[in-house]
Amino acid sequence: MTAIGTTLVIGATGTTGSRTVARLVAAGHPVRAAGRRAAPVPGAQPVRFDWYDATTHEAALGPADRVYLVPPVGDTDPAAVMLPFLRLARAAGVHRAVLLSSSAVPEGGPAVGQVHRELPGLFDQWAVLRPSWFMQNFTGDHAHAAGIRRDGVFRTATGSGRVAFVDADDIAAVAVHALTDDHAPNTDLVLTGPEPLAHDEVAAILTRVGGRPVVHRALTPEELGAHLASVVPPDFAVLLAGLDRAIAQGAEDRTTDTVEHVTGLPPHGFQEVVEREWAGR
């Protein structure tokens, strides 16, 4: 590990951010936990940060020398707000940046792919985490999880395409190594769980673990886009529907050994995570 420095974690109460903060704090690293409401986070210093309010950016950085970056949710052009902040961070003394992206978005691709492309030119020490879809999408605050809790149904346009879903705890474990190891990865890291699953298989596991029926309802990409447009901006709905189309065509039917290579531990399996997340509910 590097000498202890201060990490600014953006999205500190989110799915990966909260877990990254907890691991950093447990390891004795000072953390500035950034969010729009500066909500208290155990062991960390809460700071207010809003991607769309540049007046919050400099103060949030404080003495941080590294930063974990969760892009603004639902923005199809996050580079517009992220790149000015990253230039400010570099000027303020940040030397390492770890960006949360997606396995579906390559360097130079749409949305956060544009930030990925620029990151190596801004920082000598960097990493881009490109996780597959989160297992917690079915147990946390995602629309899938809400539909499962409400009526036992979740909807996709993935057909029979398979995804090697990844545990957010495993993402956070990799993030902490990328932020604190003596040598930064200086590359992108595609993170997956141990096995690809079709969404019908996911529904079967959720049914078995939860003890009540869960159904995967298959839509066309056009139907999914129309459904999503009622809750997210239309251009973002189109982007999400396109990602499901790519899954249906096999884009996410793969596994990597990155989690184990970086952390020394194998990634958690889907049923194991669901049992853990739903324990005592």
List the helices and strands and how they pair.
Layout: E1 7-10, H1 15-26, E2 31-35, E3 45-48, H2 57-61, E4 66-69, H3 79-91, E5 96-100, H4 112-122, E6 125-131, H5 143-151, E7 153-156, E8 162-163, H6 168-180, E9 188-191, E10 197-198, H7 199-210, E11 215-218, H8 221-228, H9 234-248, H10 258-263, H11 270-278
Describe this structure in words.
The chain has 281 residues and is an alpha/beta fold. The protein has helices spanning 15-26, 57-61, 79-91, 112-122, 143-151, 168-180, 199-210, 221-228, 234-248, 258-263, 270-278, and strands at residues 7-10, 31-35, 45-48, 66-69, 96-100, 125-131, 153-156, 162-163, 188-191, 197-198, 215-218. Helix 7 (199-210) runs parallel beside helix 11 (270-278) and helix 8 (221-228) packs antiparallel against helix 9. The longest helix is centred in the C-terminal third of the chain and has 15 residues, at 234-248.
